[in-house]
Amino acid sequence: MTTRQTTFNFDLELDRTHTDSDKWDKYKGQDILPMWVADSDFQSPPEVIEALQERVSHGIFGYTHSSEKLTELFIARLAEKYQWQVEPEWVVYLPGLVCGLNLAARTLTDDGQTIISPSPIYPPFISSAKFAERPLIKAPVVLNEGRWLPDLDAAEAQLTGKGGLFQMCNPLNPGGTVYRREELEATLAFAEKHDLFVCSDEIHCDLLLDDSLTHIPFASLNESAAQRSITLMAPSKTFNIAGLGASIAIIPNAEIRKRFSKVKRGIVPGVNVLAFTAAEAAYEHGEPWLQAQLNYLASHRDLLMTEINAIPGLKLEHIEATYLAWIDCSGLPADNPHRFFEEAGVGLSPGLDFGNRRFVRLNFGCTRKTLDEALKRMKAAVAEL
After folding, report:
1. Domain ranges of the chain
2. Max CA-CA distance within the chain?
3. Which CATH architecture has domain 68-285?
4. What residues pair up with 165 in beta bridges, in sequence order?
5. Which of the residues 14, 39, 40, 246 could staple to 275 if both were Cys, CB 3.0 to 4.6 A apart?
6. Structure pTM?
7. Are strands 196-201 and 229-233 parallel, antiparallel or unpaired?
């Protein structure tokens, strides 16, 4: 590995329309800016690109497995960033985080047991309960002093007493909330009281936009949290390598890990060789690029906070993490905010997919030029109402 770069150009405009991109092909041939699905328009760290080029030049792509080095890098990262001491045997590699949510739903619940999920939430949380044929209880996500958090009291009132699974998302998608320690401890107390396992989606944990905040993995709280949990992480959002498919489940409880592997066996494929290559390079060399990206995203967040809240009918709460803005359109005189902005040339994620049709989600993992144009179109559309 020879590439060493200290400055990165996140304003670089790259044409993705010829790359079979889900994000960009959705509006192929239309003058609509794609700002929906959560991948960014940034080139991955140069060391990741170089590592992939070196691996491809070898020319043989047989069956593969993770390297000891990758596991060591990941464990060292958790210890350094989050003060979480993880054992190598706890680590299970997956070809994506969504399959991890579905595996956890099947692993941690029996027939008739309930899955409790925040709402609004990333859609695969909801579908994982549906696919596992488990009853779903929604814990409404409400504003708490300007931060979006699940209402555990509202969820408790719906519980049947049969145990089950609590799904959490930290940082929250959508909403961007980073859980504080006391909020995690309250979640743990809730799980202990009602004999619940916890699946914690922490895929955005590296994308904190406020220097004053620290991500705390749920399972790192104490032994009780560790033994009742599955934690899902990945380098995919952090380093923009989601299309390669490399995710990680951390499962401290040996019995749960055994059950998880049994449910997975013969159904979920292994991680491919290029995904492992990219993950290893990202975790070993990607930190300077990540810090530069966070600075860039934070400036986008600050711009959005100013501009969106100046548009009549729209409201945006402070985004602590992720590059996803959860915009309240309830003051907008438009029956379908998603369609309204789509017709104005801005392709956002519909809030209905997450559980609230009066919202839209905007992906600001893009160049400043793209963001400026999107805001220009949104302002003009609302001004014409």
Report:
1. 22-46+287-383, 68-285
2. 60
3. 3-Layer(aba) Sandwich (3.40)
4. 115, 197
5. 246
6. 0.96
7. parallel
Assigned fold of 22-46+287-383: Aspartate Aminotransferase, domain 1 (3.90.1150)
3-state SS class at 86 = coil
In tens digits, the chain (385 residues) has pLDDT values of: 444 456 899 999 999 999 999 999 999 999 999 999 999 999 999 999 999 999 999 999 999 999 999 999 999 999 999 999 999 999 999 999 999 999 999 999 999 899 999 999 999 999 999 999 999 999 999 999 999 999 999 999 999 887 899 999 999 999 999 999 999 999 999 999 999 999 999 999 999 999 999 999 999 999 999 999 999 999 999 999 999 999 999 999 999 999 999 999 999 999 999 999 999 999 999 999 999 999 999 999 999 999 999 999 999 999 999 999 999 999 999 999 999 999 999 999 999 999 999 999 999 999 999 999 999 999 999 999 9
Closest CA to 89 of 75, 77, 76, 78: 75
| Torsion sign over Cα 306, 309, 311, 314 | positive
Q: Report angle CA 112, 265, 276 to the nearest 5 degrees.
A: 120
Helix, strand, or coil (residue 166) = strand
Contacts 24+ apart (CB under 8 A), 257-266: 257/89, 257/90, 257/92, 259/107, 260/92, 260/103, 260/104, 260/107, 260/230, 261/92, 263/103, 263/106, 263/107, 264/92, 264/94, 264/103
For residue 277 the two structure tokens come to 């290559």
Q: How would you class 100 by CB atoms within 10 Å of its CB: exposed for 0-12, middle for 13-18, buried for 19 or more? A: buried
